[in-house]
């Protein structure tokens, strides 16, 4: 078991690592040559075009040493931007995302003060551990383990459990209310946005002798005759999009070879046509690419004609726009036809949030896809260790020798041998865990969600579940998840929290170290942006010709809700579970929340470029996961105390999860609709105001709002075409559809 | 254990009882004097005014002996009425209710044929029981008990479980579809009904300096300006209704005494003023009642003034009517305000279905009421035996002697003593079980449901749960429910179905007897209507003066969904559980369903007078309970087989409840909305048709549709005022608000 000394050493190590990252960042960000890596958001907004604000144009390094003295001055910069400006600058999603960190501070700071003043003395002034003569550390002396069985002191923990619950719920309620109000005022302050007037209609039934477009028009002219304005049908342009993407890729290569040739005109660049350019016949690279691109262009033209003319490529899906927000709100919230699985309506996502590929999935297959993915996720969570172990068993010396005997002499070199034996199995697992978010995203895409925001939300909840089972439970109870699963199925339900509960206090030091490595150093590493920095400079050297190329080379990324949010939630879980068991852990959590808040606020302001604006639609998920963490902590405390022979406290503790659940149901009823529906009163209000202030030609505005990007994009450029027609968008971000995150 | 001989004797006894009831009914119904007891529906519809269709007016007994020969001719009469006429005659609710019995026949007849041809031979051709040398009966030889452990023959049962599931689900789906379509065509064929145009708005927020009526009008004029027509606010007239009811009661007594006096003018009727007329000063009954009624009349006038003028008596609830069904459908299905707990809208129940008393319950208390009643129901279900046992312990000889020593000589008479000892404890339980539906109804009323139909539906589901726990589980595993509860909490989850599963085959004879007593004799007794018969004749002798009095004296009752439906569901449960375990039970179930179908069809046509028309809104509940019975049967089979060492079958069986659940989710999505929402297309369709065919002045029609009955009822008569204004109701039934069921 770790002693306080061990913790201090680990803390020192991690603090030093974090400081190194921060100092490196402070130095690198001052170099004008890195300006587009560390401040891309300002370039995207068009507020900065060169890094020349202080230095000269051609300057690559900042030689003004005075500026290095203020190496931490990004912190006040990051913190001073007021919230309204932040929303305007980075969008509501980002502003609300930052509030999650703030929520962590708000919840855990008072809990920290409370538990340290009350529980730590209560725990410390016992001598159970000394009497038991087992090995123990000073950390355990501060934890609940130091209290003797059936001691009345447990009532302090029970009372504190109530304090934690009440405080957490109170904070959650205030936050839910604030976010809901922020969402409404954002909706009210937004100017025209096509999604306010538009409803996504799915599963349009086929009618004989009528095109989908005619069916949709007839239906809405009849059933919403006062409100219907126009509609756009959706084509299955997946093949076309694929061709366009391929052409774009080839074009990039062509550019690369052309630059290469222009730099060294004496030698025509050559390439091999086979896989990854490794084998195959050698050809002139520029000529080869030109012919390929021409062929693709012809294919694209043909496919484009095919998609637009072939009625079979029209999907039974349409974006229907209404004259008023009221009309759209009514249509989105009502059941249209007798058969509730036809003419399904929902509030349309904003155009850049639409995940076009999935609009072509037939509606009947969605349920099957959902079930298949549910089962797949279950097996992924509980049995992922089986294939990993299999690969690990292959990735040993004998396995490699068998598969590739020609490598034998290399492998038998001692250094390489020990490397393979020592690191390879670990690396296999590491690679899997790195790929996990991508696997989860693929699973969500397969499930058929229609907007990127919903894809990310689904990924986030699955990622959290995976972390809960495999990192939290897996660390607390050693053993693979599927072994636990079978053990739990054969235990009475009341035994499960006991088993986990007993193990909880013993794992405190493990989680403290986890917080420092993942939470402190990891977060500090985030600000350094090492990978984008390297990629940017590589691209800058090899590809960039024009300013536009340079713009494309900078890679702002987005906040990554699908991986970032589960990480924060994991700290909420650890914090709530250990708040009463080992309060010593709380300051580590607090430092994480504080550090992450500052760093991510800086990143949101200067770096990230959101792919979409869902108007904080993720908040119900955030709220629900904190609630679930609270309930888990309560159940585990109950299990722990019941093994401590504090049976009298069980009924009192039993009320905790019930009350929390009740609170959750209340919040769900009170606040969740704000994130799903557009209330009639709000819509009418906004309609009326707008009619008075700035009437406009909506039909022209909405006619082409929801056109598949490949049709907007006639030149097959990857320039952004998603801006609003009148340019009145609040968050004038651009979408780079070739981002790895978007693929 | 019962032998086949025992079963035959019990069957003979019950068949004879049922036959006696049926013959008694056949004779009694032919007497003209009983005509209003056995055919009240025709009087209510106005299709019959006297029983003189064949005999003479004054004839009390039917002396035409030829008619007795055809004593079973009510059966073809009951069966020949076609469904469309039945809906017109008795309403959609009744017609659909009868389909539940039909569904029973449709599900169990093929299952019966299958299991008898396959499972009975499979079970019979073993000799496990003979070898085991335990006592067993021939019935057990036919059941699954006769198959040796780990026999491959169990695969026959597993396969049959799939057949049962597929067949039951298929029938359920067809039925759900049929009922949904029946509901829609009923909606389309109905003429004007106020509820088609009306939305019930709850939780209207208070606005300063504005009455509720003004607030409602402003809100809907702004937010639904094209559709809003008119509204009616709801007053808290509960006190007024109470006074009116009391006055009516006194009036009845006055009538009674006046008749008594008129029959015997020599003696003024006297009465005592105390409790139940048992003590107090003796006064002239007519004079006394006249003064009391006058006093009440004054109070009523005052309270009426108070209710109409006092703004505090106006509840924040309103019935808002729209110009079109489309407008109402839109308003009912959308969220009105930013705060989703304000301006709650739902499709209004029809006027006679409104449970006015609960409209005065403040909305905030509803959740608390729901929780309180949930907890109360839990304790009622699991711990009701405790107070019963307490009362039983009091209701013994010593207890009575202690409380009432003056009864000592009476009690000590041997006959009375043995009666008290033998019957009293049983009677206490019996009384409780008889009161149970009333207790459940009171609980539902306390919960604050706003329509009688929903009250009955909630009662039905609770009554079914109670029966499941206490009759089904209670019979299968001996012991009080709360003992089982604690045993189950300390068992692993997988053990519970095993414990119940083992006990199932042993209880087959018990349930066969139960079906015969409750299902055969009980149902046959229903048609005799002994209680209404006696009451009618008593009233006829003592009270009836005019034709109108006679009409009031006949007591048609209604189908009693809250007790009747759980009874049917209980047979579905037993049938599905035993279909695979002891197929011998199935014919008994089939006879029940057949007999009950004929008898209830007769009653629906000739007797019952529905209190409301919910347009088969109860079907999702019916469907859900059959599904739950199916899942229970599957889980129990799994438990049973796992104790039979047929472990290989477990994974195959595990798929059964999962598939059934999937089917349920599918049905919920596909059909349930038809019972909750009015699809926009249907509403628009009906609106358009009506505008072309028969435009009418809706405002006048709707203005007073939802007025509290006491305001319609100015003369405080108990005549019916719920008819539609234009008399165009499809089911022109009348409501007698003094029915015991309605109180």
Automatic annotation (TrEMBL), chains A, B:
Give a yes or no for keyword Flavoprotein in this entry: no
Q: Which GO terms describe its molecular function?
A: calcium-activated cation channel activity
What is the protein name stated in its UniProt record?
A: Uncharacterized protein
Q: Locate the region Disordered.
A: 716-743
Q: Which family does it belong to?
A: Belongs to the CSC1 (TC 1.A.17) family.
User: What positions does the domain CSC1/OSCA1-like N-terminal transmembrane occupy?
Assistant: 7-173
Q: Which residues form a coiled coil?
A: none
- Composition bias (Basic residues) maps to 733-743
| Domain CSC1/OSCA1-like 7TM region residues, every copy | 369-641
Taxonomy, superkingdom: Eukaryota
Task: Name the PANTHER family on file.
Answer: CALCIUM-DEPENDENT CHANNEL, 7TM REGION PHOSPHATE, PROBABLE MEMBRANE PROTEIN DUF221-RELATED
Give a Pfam family name.
RSN1_7TM
Arranged from A to Z, the UniProt key words for this protein are: Calcium, Ion channel, Ion transport, Membrane, Transmembrane, Transmembrane helix, Transport
Membrane topology classification: Multi-pass membrane protein
From which organism does this entry originate? Tagetes erecta
